[in-house]
Amino acid sequence: MGRPTAGAGFVGAFEPRADMGRDVTGGCRPGGRPRGRAQWALVSPIFVPMFMLLDIPPEVTQAVYRIADSCTNAGTPMSAYFVMTLGVIQRYRRSAGIGTLLSLTLPLCLAMLAAWTLLFYAWWALGIPLGPGVPVR
C-alpha cells in the first residue's frame, strides 16, 4: 500500500486533483500499449486506490480515464480503422503514409482532449452527479 500513497501525494498537488493527472498519463501513452478495457484492467488497481486516498470516488477516476483514452483512439495505429483510413488518404495523396495520417489526426486528438477536459471541469464545477447516487465530488 506504500506505492499508491506516494503517488497520491504527487497527484494531490493538482486541482481538481484527478482529471489532469489521469489525462496526462492516459493521453501520452504510445500506440502499442493495450487499449480500452484491457488497459483499464491493468491500471485501475493502481489509480482507484490512489485517488480514493485523496477522497476522489472511483467513478470520477474512471470517467477521467475514459476522457484520456477516447482522445487517443483517433490517432493510434492499433485502431481497426487505421489501415482503412490510410487507404482512403492514399487515394487522394499517393505519398501519404503512417506519419501523414498521424500528423492529420494529432490536431483532432488534442482538440478532443481540450473539449472533453473543459466539459469535465464544467461538470465538476457544477457538481452534477455522474449517475444515480454517484456524486462527482
From TrEMBL:
<dbReference type="Pfam" id="PF03806">
    <property type="entry name" value="ABG_transport"/>
</dbReference>
<feature type="transmembrane region" description="Helical">
    <location>
        <begin position="101"/>
        <end position="124"/>
    </location>
</feature>
<dbReference type="GO" id="GO:0015558">
    <property type="term" value="F:secondary active p-aminobenzoyl-glutamate transmembrane transporter activity"/>
</dbReference>
<keyword id="KW-0812">Transmembrane</keyword>
<keyword id="KW-1133">Transmembrane helix</keyword>
<dbReference type="InterPro" id="IPR004697">
    <property type="entry name" value="AbgT"/>
</dbReference>
<dbReference type="GO" id="GO:1902604">
    <property type="term" value="P:p-aminobenzoyl-glutamate transmembrane transport"/>
</dbReference>
<keyword id="KW-0472">Membrane</keyword>
<protein>
    <recommendedName>
        <fullName>AbgT transporter</fullName>
    </recommendedName>
</protein>
